[in-house]
Specification:
The protein has 24 helices and nine strands. By secondary structure, the protein is of the alpha/beta class. Helix 23 (about 555-565) links the parallel strand 8 and strand 9 (about 575). The protein is elongated. The chain has two domains: about 15-460, no CATH class; about 470-595, 2-Layer Sandwich (Transcription Regulator spoIIAA), CATH 3.30.750. Residues about 15-25 and about 600-610 have low confidence and may be disordered. Helix 9 runs antiparallel to helix 10, helix 12 packs across helix 13 (about 330-345) and helix 12 crosses helix 20 (about 445-465). The strands form three sheets. It has a five-stranded mixed beta sheet with strand order 5-6-7-8-9, with helices on both faces. A two-stranded antiparallel sheet has the order 1-4. A two-stranded antiparallel ribbon has the order 2-3.
């Protein structure tokens, strides 16, 4: 075997080993939450507690799943299919013990424009693309990075989303039919204003009554979720008034959504489980034909990225809060991969984008959930309800669902926390907060997520640039006698692209009177390429000025970076020392040698012969 062939075989073997290691790592990540819980032992009592918690959270998730689907102008069953499919997949493969996954209010502002522009088919394709991105994020171990997004960014997103959701419910709350599909909050409010003559007092009344019940029922009834009682009461009230009052009319799920099965038109939702479907065979914009193409995929990519990032943020934030409530520990990368798989599978069963739902997860934990099996029970309960209660869902007023989403938006906004952050936060944080809030409200989440992530990076770089400093140390002269031509500078903090040029700019003030410059770097944990180039520029300038540089106290990682870059000892130009004391001693010796080599003016130089 020749050397070239052997080298090729070795490289191929190394590549295969790397892929096997990656596959094993991913396999080891999947199902972290369920595996760790089952290893601790799982009893009949645990299953009983999980079953009860699953039923409770299922009752909460049932109306929410339908409401969140109707909020993006798709039939309510697609929200139910999402809760069923994603709920089971993430529970089996995810990294948490009590996370409940399904459609959430945060996605409304992203998904609604996709539905208007590309129809249900485009919506499901975008969800699949987001799933692929989430899987890649999990495989790349990006789970921990999600925690680096500053709080003002997520707070701005959340408050903006809450306001948009509340505004979007006004159409159903007032019973108004809009001409066309206005894009954006401003256009939506303008369309509402122009259609104000069509306000239906009966819809307003149903919405108001439902709001009242959603507010006051939790104060009286603790065991049964308020949405279930309030929506059921609203549906019964609407049916009674329809029979008793001649001119009574309100929009219902049955009047707004219909589906045709075997030639029969069914109002509301079909009494069927999630059935396999090809997403690209569903309707496009305005019910037209959907055409899958590379140009469409490219057009959907920004929205898919926004879905993935927002889904990852919301799911991992929910997982962190769940850990605090239950005293457990989650694996963020396992959760991202499971969430990605769920979003890849959901579109093939008619499900929309899904992520971890904080309110439902908290309900699950408070109800006594002990493992992901509770989430599976919740999904099975929704499945059974979809089949059994489908005929009754048709009578549910759209105004009642609007009232439910108004409560969701109120709880989601955390208005008091938003105002408090405005009052106590630094000016830069307030600017970021208001920017994310404004972009979310006036434009869309694709722009808001992109700008928000960029602002997060810029804010991080700015803070790190402030932390990294180069200072002239004058205290060492009290301990060590340093010649006048020696300058000691301390560099503290990471030397990366956001801080290196600013920090090392201090060294530009070094005068020609300094013959030796000591750079103490024991507090520098890392140097990236930008920091390396900036330092090399400083070293080159000092060399051209005939000034020697001594680098001391290098950490192992920094020393290794310098070695790879070819920064090494050069006699009379660059030296290394383990600590400041040694560096000062080396500087004194260098100064002494300079004094011998260049005697004071007026003293004759002794030649080699001694004459």
């Amino acid at each position: 075997m020749g050397p070239d062939v052997k080298r090729y075989v070795d490289e191929l073997t190394d590549a295969v080993k790397a892929q096997l290691a990656l596959a094993y790592g991913v396999k080891d990540l999947l199902g972290y939450g369920l595996r760790t819980r089952l290893r601790e032992g799982y009893t009949v009592a645990d299953f009983r507690a999980d079953a009860l918690a699953g039923l409770v959270v299922g009752i909460v998730a049932l109306p929410l799943s339908m409401a969140l689907a109707t909020a993006i102008d798709v039939p309510p069953q697609h929200g139910l299919y999402t809760a069923i499919v994603a709920g089971i997949i993430v529970a089996l493969l995810g990294g948490t013990r009590a996370q409940v996954t399904g459609p959430t209010a945060a996605f409304v502002v992203i998904l609604l424009p996709i539905v208007h522009q590309h129809g249900l088919g485009g919506l499901l394709i975008a969800g699949f693309m987001a799933g692929v991105i989430l899987v890649l994020m999990g495989m790349a171990r990006f789970g921990r990075f999600m925690t680096f997004i500053p709080h003002p960014v997520t707070t701005g997103f959340t408050a903006g989303i809450a306001l948009v959701i509340a505004v979007l419910q006004l159409k159903d709350a007032f019973g108004i039919s809009l001409a066309g599909r206005p894009e954006g909050v401003v256009a939506y409010l303008e369309a509402l204003w122009h259609a104000r003559a069509g306000v239906n007092g009966w819809d307003v009344g149903v919405c108001g009554v439902t709001l009242g019940m959603l507010v006051f029922i939790p104060k009286v009834v603790k065991r049964v979720p308020a949405p279930l009682l309030a929506l059921a009461a609203a549906a019964v009230l609407a049916v009674l008034l329809d029979h008793l009052v001649t001119d009574f009319h309100v929009a219902t799920i049955g009047s707004k959504f219909q589906v045709e099965i075997d030639g029969e038109t069914i109002r509301g939702i079909p009494p069927l489980p999630p059935m396999p479907v090809w997403p690209w065979r569903l309707a496009g914009a305005n019910g037209g034909e959907f055409v899958l193409s590379f140009a469409l995929i490219r057009e959907l990519m920004p929205a898919a990225f926004a879905i993935a990032v927002l889904g990852a943020i919301e799911s991992l934030m929910s997982a962190v809060i769940a850990d605090g409530m239950s005293g457990t520990k989650h694996d963020p990368n396992s959760e991202l991969i499971a969430l990605g798989v769920a979003n890849m599978v959901c579109p093939f069963f008619g499900g929309i984008a899904a992520t971890g739902a904080l309110a439902r997860t908290a309900t699950n934990i408070r109800a006594g959930a002990r493992s992901p099996i509770a989430t599976i029970v919740h999904a099975l309960f929704i499945l059974a309800s979809t089949i059994a209660l489908a005929p009754l869902v048709a009578y549910l007023p759209m105004a009642a669902l609007a009232a439910l989403l108004l409560i969701v938006a109120k709880n989601m906004s955390e208005a008091r926390h938003f105002v408090r952050l405005m009052r106590i936060a630094q000016r830069s944080d307030v600017i970021v907060l208001l920017t994310c809030f404004t972009l979310t409200v006036l434009f869309d989440m694709v722009i808001a997520v992109s700008v928000g992530v960029m602002l997060a990076a810029l804010l991080f770089m700015r803070r790190m640039a402030v932390l990294t400093k180069v200072t002239l140390d004058t205290t060492m002269g009290e301990t060590f006698e340093m010649p006048a031509g020696v300058r000691l500078y301390e560099i503290a903090g990471p030397m990366f692209f956001g801080a290196a040029n600013v920090a090392l700019g201090t060294l530009d003030t070094i005068g020609s009177e300094a013959k030796v410059v000591i750079l103490e770097m024991r507090h520098v944990p890392v140097v990236d390429a930008t920091g390396l180039v900036a330092l090399e520029s400083i070293l080159d300038r000092l060399h051209r000025s005939h000034q020697k540089t001594i680098l001391c106290g290098l950490q192992a990682e920094v020393a290794a970076t310098f070695a790879k870059a070819g920064i090494k000892r050069v006699p009379g130009r660059l030296a290394f020392a383990p600590d400041v004391e040694t560096a000062i001693s080396m500087a004194i010796v260098h100064e002494a040698r300079l004094s011998i080599a260049t005697p004071p003016t007026g003293i004759p130089t002794v030649g080699p012969s001694g004459h």
